[in-house]
Amino acid sequence: MFNSDKTYKSIEKGSRMRVPRVYANSPFKPLYEHAAKGIEAVQKLREVLDAFWRKILREQGKMPRK
After folding, report:
1. Nearest residue to 6 (alpha-carbon basis) of 18, 16, 17, 15
2. Is residue 3 part of a domain?
3. Structural domain containing residue 47
4. What is the mean pLDDT of residues 52-64?
């Protein structure tokens, strides 16, 4: 049966997006794993886009260098 523990784990340290902790006896384990991969892909995309926009703003002189 399902484990009644409602704890959550973070995919990455410091990550705001969380997925339910996966238990070996859960019938939804493949779904959780698939969702975790999607969330990781979105986080990587966000990092790339943030870097891209910072570069554009810096070139336009609207953002100071750190």
Report:
1. 18
2. no
3. 27-66
4. 85
